[in-house]
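Checklist before submission:
- one chain only
- standard amino acids only
- sequence pasted in full

Submission:
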Amino acid sequence: MITTAAPTEDPGKSHVHNVALTRRRTLLAGSVLGGAALLLTGCSEDSGPGGGGQDADAAAAARLRGQAARDSAALLAHYDATLAAHPGLGERLRPLRAEVARHAAAFGGAAPAPSASATASTAPRTGASGTPSAPASASAPAVPPDGKQARADLAAAERRTADARAAALVSAPPELARLLASVAAAGAAHAYLLTEDGA
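Returned file contents:
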């Protein structure tokens, strides 16, 4: 003979307990979702009536993009001056210079075509004295006569630019912050490659 145990609790109480538990879960879920909604509202780009905050954010982002494009242009000038002064480094520097040009374009700057010194860097330029010389340019940085020191200077310029971009991440909107972070990482890699003795 099989016997079944009679429930020890009143079935009505069990139902009330499940309803109360369901209500608690519903209230808890509602408060979590409400809190998440408040957080998302606080993270939206429209920080005030009329979008005034959005205009200020857009202007700040435009300033950051402009500065990043100018930094890339200065870095391109440094690459061009180094290539002009040390044509033998062309094989090593041209791919890095091309990436810097793409970075400038990504920030909205004009991506200048490789300069004559960057494309024809296999033939050394000679000055009036017959010695190799860099082209005269007001914006071109001074390049050391030693190739290894020239690479070290270029690596330092890459590091400074990468550091400036990493510092700008704090105030950049998300999309621009991702671009800045990516380009800063590329700049750090360039600095490493420039200081390697191989290749």
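Reviewer check: DSSP finds six helices and no strands in the chain.
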